[in-house]
Amino acid sequence: MASFQGEALQSASKPDSDCRFEPGVMVPVIDPMRCEAKGPCVPICPYDVLVIRTVTPEEKAGLPWVGRFKLLVHGGKQAFVLVPEACRGCGLCVTACPEKAITLQKLQLRR
């Protein structure tokens, strides 16, 4: 996983970078303890996979106190994966995130 992330970061830093996977193979995973909803991940994604939105009360309740405090400081918003099956693993969102809150992982198929 770590070597792929390094490759994705390297590939995504090139403006002529092509996506590495077919849709639905990779998915961005957002660490809610790191995300500050600054938002550069959203416009850089060529497939509109991510969105910044207000965290619901249910989502907020599932966070530890540090996460809830961080939400308060950052306006109660975070990045979320809106359309995971559209991700093509280009890594642009990973590179754009100033908090390093996004990683790419293989999408787990449900059986």
Automatic annotation (TrEMBL):
Keywords: 4Fe-4S, Iron, Iron-sulfur, Metal-binding. One of its GO terms (molecular function) is metal ion binding. SUPFAM superfamilies: 4Fe-4S ferredoxins (SSF54862). InterPro entries: 4Fe4S_Fe-S-bd, 4Fe4S_Fe_S_CS, Fe-S_Ferredoxin. Residues 26-55, 78-107 form the 4Fe-4S ferredoxin-type domain. This is NAD-dependent dihydropyrimidine dehydrogenase PreA subunit. It comes from Tunturiibacter lichenicola.
